[in-house]
């Protein structure tokens, strides 16, 4: 691991990319034990609730509370969504409406934007302005990762070409490790670029399932009403994001 990081440093990798590599390596080491730990906690809570629910000495109110808590835990374990009792029923009711034309993963993508009325019906999805701005910068970061990975790959190719006769089995393994890291960074970059658009599309699908045509974000409004014209939309969304990312690569490489 230390050798890979040393070589990436010699390749002129920017500080941001190096920090991302550190985080990726750390996440790779901690992912499995943390996932196992979290799963054990969830199963332990579920088993305790089942044990408490099976006890026959509870009064009606306590038994009702345990029943709703158990339902919430099963729903969370199955869907990954944490919704209170009554709210999950409304979500499933919306999902199953008209034979469930909208896949459930769309609801999961916009779960953090779900708001409910006093009768627990779901309000139209609207992505807050702060999250829209975060999505904008997230896409810039995604293009930054793609461009930086391309530069690193070019530098690595030149180094390999200049030292092709000196490469042994250890060097080949190190180069393979770096290529795997670059691939992972590329995938993260594509994820950052596509995530805001994916959330936007999911919010539109969920709103349509509710029978609403409300704009879910500024991009939705601009795209639907064709504000600023075709060239204006390009100048507002499609050109500045990659351009700003490549400027960051140029000045902070």
Description:
The chain crosses the membrane at residues 12-31, 141-160, 172-194, 235-252. Keywords: Membrane, Transmembrane, Transmembrane helix. The structure is a single chain. The model has no long low-confidence stretch (mean pLDDT 84). The radius of gyration is 24 Å and the shape is flat. It has ten helices and no strands. The chain is mostly helical and 253 residues long. The protein folds into two domains: 1-79, no CATH class; 129-252.
Measured as a percent range, the helix fraction is over 70%
Q: Please state the structural category.
A: mainly alpha
Report the count of strand segments.
0
Shape: flat
Strand content: under 5%
- Helix and strand run: HHHHHHHHHH
| Tally of contiguous helical segments | 10
Present the secondary structure layout.
Blueprint: H1 2-10, H2 15-54, H3 60-79, H4 87-96, H5 104-109, H6 129-162, H7 169-210, H8 218-225, H9 229-238, H10 240-251
Helix pairs in contact: 1-7, 2-3, 6-7, 6-10
Keywords: Membrane, Transmembrane, Transmembrane helix
Transmembrane segments: 12-31, 141-160, 172-194, 235-252
Put the structure in a nutshell:
Keywords: Membrane, Transmembrane, Transmembrane helix. The chain is mainly α.
Essential attributes:
2 domains; single chain; transmembrane; 253 residues; transmembrane helix; mainly alpha
């Amino acid at each position: 691991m230390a050798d890979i990081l040393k070589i990436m440093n010699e390749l002129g990798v920017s500080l941001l990319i190096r920090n991302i590599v550190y985080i990726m390596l750390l996440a790779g080491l901690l992912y499995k034990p943390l996932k196992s730990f979290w799963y054990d906690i969830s199963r332990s809570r579920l088993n305790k609730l089942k044990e408490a629910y099976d006890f026959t000495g509870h009064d009606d109110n306590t038994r009702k509370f345990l029943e709703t808590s158990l339902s919430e835990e099963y729903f969370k374990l199955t869907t990954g969504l944490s919704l209170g009792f009554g709210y999950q029923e409304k979500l499933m009711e919306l999902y199953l409406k008209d034979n469930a034309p909208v896949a459930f993963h769309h609801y999961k993508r916009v779960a953090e934007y779900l708001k409910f009325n006093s009768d627990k019906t779901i309000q139209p999805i609207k992505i807050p302005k702060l999250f829209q701005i975060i999505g904008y910068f997230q896409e810039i970061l995604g293009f930054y990762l793609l461009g930086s990975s391309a530069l690193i790959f070019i530098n690595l190719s030149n180094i390999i070409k200049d030292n092709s006769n000196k490469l042994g089995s250890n060097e080949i393994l190190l180069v393979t490790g770096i290529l795997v890291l670059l691939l992972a960074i590329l995938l993260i970059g594509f994820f950052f670029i596509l995530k805001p658009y994916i959330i936007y599309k999911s919010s539109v699908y969920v709103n349509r399932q509710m029978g609403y045509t409300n704009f879910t974000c500024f991009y939705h409004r601009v795209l639907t009403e064709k504000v600023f014209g075709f060239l204006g939309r390009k100048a507002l969304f499609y050109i500045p994001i990659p351009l700003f990312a490549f400027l960051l690569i140029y000045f902070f490489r």
